């Protein structure tokens, strides 16, 4: 397997030191949700035509983006005029071309992960072109194709940030939407929008070899599956299983195959067998068939568990070789799992005897840091890994969300942002 080198962490750290010195924390709001000053910015910007707004954005000035968001939790997606700040010295202004639709968008907009300030414009799988840069931007230039994933800021100073694991920032990282951005005194709004303004060190380079629409979902689903495969040292000779074949699972299969592993898929649906094989899996295991599961005993080095519902982990643990690793990447609607129709009560607890007897590890994994996200994009470009997508217009978003919740998509919807102004 060829090794793709991440961008120099030292260079990024040096830039961040400069940046954090220039960007004093102006707000006192907590990171993430829950800031009481949720309506501190006018949710409807001044009236601007899309052409005027694009021109202002291209000059790095404050402008109004056309977006789709919810005005009530659980409501339909509606047009929202979104004020976007003028670029500061380290900001990049991006004209959004595509934005992937992630399950998290639906959970957030329906209040399934707690209250949110409204209106809420989701979207954290953003790809577009740079149209303006702040006076001190050095990582990106006008015309570059770039991306923004789940994070837009963090403290840049704690041990986690310095190690390139901004998602674990000790002070709290700032999510791409629905979070309080204490560096700019504003609530973040996502990529179902014609433009975004983001600090340069949270903006990724999208290699030109990647199809931009198919690259968008890599920024959340891609890094979520790449990171645990990479940290488990997956390569030629590894035996990997992927449980759950949805948006995350299909990328886990493609990435693990590209890393040189032998990959199996666990699914409850006989109808997914052909699709799994077409993605590069060499075997498909019907997980409701006890005999088929028994045949996999002590077989895998790593299992990526992308099932977003309560389920029996012991059945998967039994399929691991000694010292094997089971990694959870799926999140149920409520983060504590209690909202799964009470299923938490009926699923067997993890059998610690299994863990001890075979020296197994039970892991969790959460997206990935900025350097590793760049490494993943470069890896996907080099190995021709792309998301299988279905493009939707702004008018089709509600229907696409319904289909996504029903599992009726192969494998990721992507919004064509050009349709936001239709
Ligand atoms: Zn996501
Ligand atoms: Zn930090």
UniProtKB/TrEMBL annotation:
Its EC number is 1.1.1.2. PROSITE patterns: ADH_ZINC. GO terms for molecular function: alcohol dehydrogenase (NADP+) activity; zinc ion binding. Residues 75-415 form the Enoyl reductase (ER) domain. Residues 20-65 are annotated as: Disordered. Its cofactor is Zn(2+). Keywords: Metal-binding, Oxidoreductase, Zinc. Coiled coil: none annotated. It catalyses: a primary alcohol + NADP(+) = an aldehyde + NADPH + H(+). Belongs to the zinc-containing alcohol dehydrogenase family. This is alcohol dehydrogenase (NADP(+)). The lineage of its organism: Bacteria, Bacillati, Actinomycetota, Actinomycetes, Micrococcales.
